[in-house]
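Data card: per-record layout.
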Amino acid sequence: MKDYNKLSRWILTGLVSVGIILSGCGGSGSASSAATSGSTAASGTSSAGSSAISSAASQSGSESRIDLADGTYEAKFDTDSTMFKVNEANDEKGTLTVKDGVATIHITLAGKSIVNVFYGTSEDAKKEGAKLIEPSTDTVKYSDGETGEALGFDIPVPYLDEEYIVAIVGTKGNWYDHKVKVSEVKPRTEESSSSGSAGSSASSSVALKNGEYKIEFDCTGGSGRGGVEAATVTIKDGKTEVKLTMTSASYSKVVVDGKTYESKPEGGKSTFTIPAVLDSPMEITATTEAMSQPHDIKYIVTLKSSSLPASAAGN
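The structure for this 315-residue chain is written out next.
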């Protein structure tokens, strides 16, 4: 019995010792955490702030991940703000410009309430000598034909498809941090980049390399038994033309924006070379001789710039 009691005391003493050791580890860990927290607070940097500063550091260009040929592109610009966002006429899109691996995106906002943007955090934006991004005054054309003015900004883009931090200040002088992301990059027409989501005339300057490229398209209209079979875009000195190959040789002419283009038969098919705009519906009236009398058929053709090869981008 004495041996049993002695053994019990040994076990109890051991458990208490272990408890002291364990509580000592916990206390040491808490003290370490507190010291770390105090150090962080003293430096004025939270973990979120550290992440933002790290992001801002990479924004300096030393870690640029832009792997695109020099040129101009269309890109989606996402933000975490309902106030700091792209004008509705531009469908969340901006104009991305790449030169020597350095990229900026021009966005047009919804109004004039944001007066400056800073490439980094609001804390850094308030420092003496901070380089603020000044606005431009952009003309916006809406789908109903109305026009208006809004402020635009050229914002640096350190990388694609990942969030980074920019700061904004409004007319009241208060700075705010916002997360932004640039994605869905594709070659674009200069016209569509400058005039909101408005429709288009058939002529357009484009930011693509000179060359000839097959392009995918949507074609609606007609009876569904004929129409456009293939499309090839030619870029020359900033101008875009498209050669449309029809499904048969029975098409004698097409009319685009009031101008008539005669058929040039190739390989047993009618072809037409006309001025073109990418990613905007083009109305084409084609005259077919397949019936007893010439018959006009209206088609809506939309050329998809997203189908162009990457080698077509930039000059």
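Known properties of this structure: Residues 10 and 186 are 75 Å apart (CA to CA). The domain at 211-312 is CATH 2.60.40.1850 (Immunoglobulin-like).

See the next section for split statistics.
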